[in-house]
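Final report, Chapter 2: Outcomes

The project's central promise was a pipeline that accepts a single protein chain and returns its three-dimensional structure in a standardized token representation, suitable for archiving and comparison. That pipeline is now operational. To close this chapter, we reproduce one record exactly as it appears in the project archive, with the input sequence first and the structure output second.
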Amino acid sequence: MDTILIGIAGGTGSGKTTLANRLVESFGGDEVSILRHDNYYRRHDDMEYEERTKLNYDHPDAFDTELLCEHIRALKAGKSIRMPVYDYSLHNRSDRTIEVKPAPVIVLEGILIFAEVSLCELMDIKVFVDTDADVRILRRIVRDVKHRGRSLDSVISQYLTTVKPMHEQFVEPSKRRADIIIPEGGENRVALDMLIQRVRKHLAVTE
């Protein structure tokens, strides 16, 4: 199977997940598979909950990059993988996994995927979603409080202590590795249509 890997990166709340989801939804599950970088946070069963809440989850070292690269290579080789599932309320990887089947197109979305050279080397198309910082933090607050069981104080504290400085140190510089920079992510219909056409072109060749 001739597989291409599309990496979609961007800061927290930038709209990269929306863009990735809309791209995947435009095709069938047999044509496009998706991997979530957040699901590859390292396990910390050796730590108590309070210790885990204090970890820096916005540094590249927080992720099990070796496992992710192994899974990408397996998918490109036509093999199914079991993607781990991260539980945000526990600040730890859960015991559940999700089966991801090989497909002609794999989408990988995450904040720090361009900060890792080993991941970039596996990508065929690198897309960076660029959104204003004020918009991103407001989206993050709504998401984490409403859907991830976090308190407003904890979201603000995490943003100021790790999210913002790590964005400036790792995420923003990684934009230089992008092939395409898209303002506003999933709300940018023109950019989404261009990506859809690129995927269709690849699928037509692989049929």
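Archive annotation: Residues 4-206 form a domain with the Rossmann fold fold (CATH 3.40.50.300).
This record, like all others produced under the grant, will remain available to the consortium after the project formally closes.
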